[in-house]
Amino acid sequence: MAENPWVLSYDGFDPAGESLREALCTLGNGYFATRGAAEESEADEVHYPGTYLAGGYNRRVTDLSGRSIENEDLVNLPNWLPLSFRPEGGDWLNLRRMGILDYRQRLDLKRGVLERHLRVTDGAGHVTALAFRRIVHMRHPNLAAIEMRITPETWSGRVEVASALDGRVINAGVERYRELNSKHLAPLEAREAEEPDTMLLVAETNQSHIRIAQAARTRVYRDGAEPAVERVTDVEDDHVAQTLTLELQRGETLSVEKTVALFTSRDRGISEPAQAALRATREAGRFEDLLATHVQAWQLLWDRGDIVVDRHPRTQMILRLHVFHLLQTVSPNTIDQDAGVPARGLHGEAYRGHIFWDELFILPYLDFHFPEIARSLLLYRYRRLPDARRLAREAGLAGAKFPWQSGSSGREESQVLHLNPRSGRWTPDNSHIQRHVGAAIALNVWRYWQSTCDRDFLGQYGAEMLIEIARFWASLAKWNDATGRYDIRGVMGPDEFHDAYPWSDVPGLDNNAYTNVLAAWVLRRAGEVLGHVEPVRRKELERLLALEPEEVAGWGRIAGKLTLPFIDGGIIAQFEGYDRLEELDWDGYRAKYGDIHRLDRILEAEGDSVNRYKASKQADVLMLFYLFSSAELRDLITGMGYDFDPQVIPRTVDYYLARTSHGSTLSRVVHSWVLARSDRARSWELLKGALESDISDIQGGTTAEGIHLGAMAGTVDLVQRGQTGLEFYDDTLALSPCLPQELQGLHLGLMHRGHWLRLDISCDEVRVAVPVGWPGPHRIRVRNEVHDLAAGEELRFPCQLHGGGWRPAPEASPPDTAVTTEPERGKRSAGGTPTGSS
Ligand code: IFM
């Protein structure tokens, strides 16, 4: 059957694959999200019905291997899903104990609806058809609803419906965290509300004291009317349930509607969560009413955020799935929530809901479609600038040192011990020395500014972050008399396999190329940022930050003298001393283990260490080619005082690609991007791998614990920017479409400085529709041909996308436009000055 590009669908119940389905069928609205667990299920070896609040963290201490360890977790909130039925006195719905005659599950991406259709037979031979629909409301972020339709096919009689709010939950979603203290909730209140059809459950996190109130209204309808029901409410400290009993005839359909409101003490504009939740359920309409406004909210999101690819339904569906999960994690409802974007979404408990550098892969999509969400995520970082300053101070450094893993407060949340499930050993986790996270934040600030020209943001928040991050790099870089250069020592690059030299007991590597180039970029950019800030604010910032011209000049000097290590033939070395590492027998390990993406764990279990080998988990040096064009990189590297010939890039890509296990889902995104123009076939293979990462769980079990949002958003951005070659320079918009053979066309809108640009790329034509009032570049370069770009115009460039070259169309240029074939020589926006009004 042809794939529906708007639907993720499953046939049959598969207990072994259920936890993966639950993660992929999560519904959320940027305020909270709930895994796609069956309504009637409880947490067990098959199901894990988790609910997570954006920014809903709590800390617990555990004694482990003789150490007291404090972990901060994104808390699994009370389960609001429970909804089930049975013929009176028969068996409650249970997929593992009943005969399943039919089972279909659909996630409707367009409408944000999760559906299940099933027919079951119980021990007494009753055949019943059931249909569930569920939403987590995109417009009213505190609301969710379930509809369960019950049709007895072979029986008549009394039916019981059970509905509950379950606060007995703990954080148990990740097997390897099970030794850690996982009880985060204390019960406060459970009761029936004044309205007998409504229950209330209130709990509080036991350290961060976030109060959570859930109210659930359960009603039944038959032929559009509410029949008389017997209703019994059972109350325990941390659980409240209602059982509704009524008569049902064979062939009749009973509709059960459970409407839930979730409020917390983090909410604004309320007096108190319980009161707000009760009022919201009282005022909520029926399921169909809620559905209508929810679908409308999703439609508005898709109007802005959809990316359409021609004639490849699976790619289309997966790209939409990725956008869908991104917008369920961060949406317009996230704005003002003071929440960052957790690497694993709000979809599971992996990495405890922490926030890493993965924003670097996520923000470009948001910048171009939902800049107000990007801004909100940057403000999450800004609010934690005082913590970042404290971290720098504690390390004896200046400026701001952002944590590798961030949660509630901005302190370092990285774990200190890591369990290798293969060996059963807890080993030190040094990943917090990935200082490059600060550079990623600086880059995100700059890109947002380039894309939006939001001068208020830059003046109030962005410039300060950039300057403080630059100060950190300037203080970390140490002058080396022997080389006459600055070194950055004791860090980790993005490749998490290498955290130390095999010949040293001390964690950290010296002069990681990625880190040093990014540090140089930050130091340079910080030197110019105040030039873009409104003059009065600029003076204020200079005083507030005690910024003197000598300090800025010092940044320039450091940027110009940072060390960059090289190996044979001009290939950039991942870090100093990389050439002393041994080659790994990749074929031997593949033959022995098959899946070697977690080579670090394999080698540790063998009593060896991946630190000894030229083996990377993910792109490290190659990140440079992902983030910067070859011209920008040459500029940066020559600015550091080295020769750099972009001709060496293909060899560098081959070198590291052959030595990478893709143990991080981010890796294939980067490799596909850097190969997009030189090796389309290989780039497509890698993109396909990145697209399948979560939907097919290619890492064998990780997606069930939460999606990989960086890779999800990264694939969308790869199509959006990587394959269109879209770049904004000072005065020129550049396009150089380079789609894989398999994709026949691409259609999207892009927001630039408050205006929507429309791109339609097909096999034989590129069309660019420029909006009225366009404030962006006034020229467009398609491949090497430059044309004027005027507001309100639609330009068409005939081309042969998958072969042959480009030919300029006479009508592409307005009569008085100078057409030049000279390559554009201005700076790309990532390093340039925004044009247009501020
Ligand atoms: O940030 C990533 C890192 O690069 C690889 N390990 C997982 C982290 C969270 O996604």
Automatic annotation (TrEMBL):
Residues 726-788 form the Glycoside hydrolase family 65 C-terminal domain. One of its GO terms (molecular function) is carbohydrate binding. GO terms for biological process: carbohydrate metabolic process. Residues 10-266 form the Glycoside hydrolase family 65 N-terminal domain. Residues 801-838 are annotated as: Disordered. Keywords: Glycosyltransferase, Hydrolase, Transferase. Residues 320-716 form the Glycoside hydrolase family 65 central catalytic domain. Transmembrane segments: none annotated. The active site is at residue 496. Substrate binds at residues 357-358, 617-618. InterPro entries: 6-hairpin_glycosidase_sf (IPR008928), 6hp_glycosidase-like_sf (IPR012341), Gal_mutarotase_sf_dom (IPR011013), GH65_N (IPR037018), Glyco_hydro_65_C (IPR005194), Glyco_hydro_65_M (IPR005195), Glyco_hydro_65_N (IPR005196), Malt_Pase/Glycosyl_Hdrlase (IPR017045). Belongs to the glycosyl hydrolase 65 family. This is Trehalose and maltose hydrolase (Possible phosphorylase). It comes from Tranquillimonas alkanivorans.
